[in-house]
Design brief:
A hairpin with a 5-residue loop joins β14 and β15. Strands 11, 13, 14, 15, 17, 19 and 20 form a 7-stranded antiparallel sheet that branches. A 4-stranded antiparallel sheet has the order 3-2-6-7, with no helix packed on it. A 3-stranded antiparallel sheet has the order 1-5-4, with no helix packed on it. The N terminus is likely disordered. It has 2 domains: 85 residues, Peptidoglycan hydrolase domains (Immunoglobulin-like, Sandwich); 166 residues, Glucose Permease (Domain IIA) (Distorted Sandwich), CATH 2.70.70.10. 13% of the residues lie in helices and 36% in strands. By secondary structure, the chain is mostly beta strands. Bound molecules: zinc ion. Zinc ion binds next to loops. Zinc ion (ZN) binds next to loops.
Length: 265
């Protein structure tokens, strides 16, 4: 009995305490006692989130899915570097069938995707100075979660980018709730993502909601955790109604499962 309890305690703490420094994971690097102002930290040229956790500064680093296994480093504004190890992580393959227009794009749609990519990238890379102590998220919708983050994807047999989020199955019309306080960084109807909301939680921590049937928020709006963002739908490149939920740190997509509590798998 005691060992079962110990295991439960271990699992409950795992989402926050664990270092998941693998491609698509999150590296947590202790930068010492949290005295004075937070250190300014970069990975490559991008600012990194620094949280005050239990009186210590903790760099919370999103690791890009293409990062090679080996040693990586963050740089502090004072010139110091902190090395950290990137470990291997296995992802699956996923084969999907969609309408042909989502695999071979017309010239017009290619141009549209290019324009939208700039807007989406700007929102996903937005920086806002906000004190952070916790980056745990509430579930945006309840429902079975796919564990397909990072999967190498083939649409109608053709290789495309790896899956950069988590798909949560829910009926069309289910309310999507903000998992944490934030500001709406962008809303739009995009070719691949359909009706989309992007939330900025501060310090480069961004969340993305795609394929909505309806959007209930406006760009620039302040959002409290639990507020309704819109409704689950099947807009954009989908095989059916679901929420595509993306989470980003320092511009890199990380596995949302590392930030959420337990759910129905
Ligand atoms: Zn998805």
């Amino acid at each position: 009995m005691r060992s079962v309890l110990a295991l439960l305690v271990l699992l409950a703490g795992a989402a926050v305490a664990d270092n998941s420094a693998w491609p698509g994971g999150i590296a947590r690097i202790d930068l010492g006692p949290a005295s004075g102002s937070a250190p300014t930290v970069y990975l490559d040229d991008r600012r990194v989130l620094v949280a005050n956790q239990d009186g210590r500064w903790l760099a919370i680093v999103g690791v890009h899915l293409d990062t090679p296994v080996g040693t990586a480093a963050i740089a502090l504004a004072d010139g110091t570097r902190h090395d950290f190890d990137i470990t291997a992580h296995a992802y699956r393959e996923q084969h999907l069938e969609v309408a042909p227009g989502y695999v071979s794009l017309s010239e017009e749609n290619l141009a549209r995707v290019g324009r939208e990519r700039k807007i989406i990238d700007a929102a996903l890379n937005h920086w806002r100075d906000t004190p952070m102590d916790d980056i745990r998220l509430q579930n945006p919708v309840d429902g079975p979660r796919s564990s397909s983050f990072g999967s190498r994807r083939f649409f109608n047999g053709e290789a495309r980018s790896p899956h950069s989020g988590m798909d949560i199955a829910a009926n069309a019309g289910t309310e999507i709730l903000a998992p944490l306080d934030g500001i709406v960084a962008a809303v739009g109807d995009y070719y691949f993502n359909g009706n989309t909301v992007i939330l900025d939680h501060g310090q480069g921590f961004i969340t993305l909601y795609c394929h909505l049937s309806r959007i209930d928020v406006d760009e620039g709006q302040d959002i409290a955790a639990g507020a309704t963002l819109g409704l689950v739908g099947a807009t954009g490149r989908v095989t059916g109604a679901h929420l595509h939920f993306g989470t980003y740190l320092n511009g890199n997509a990380v596995d949302p499962a590392l930030l959420l509590g337990a759910g129905d798998e």
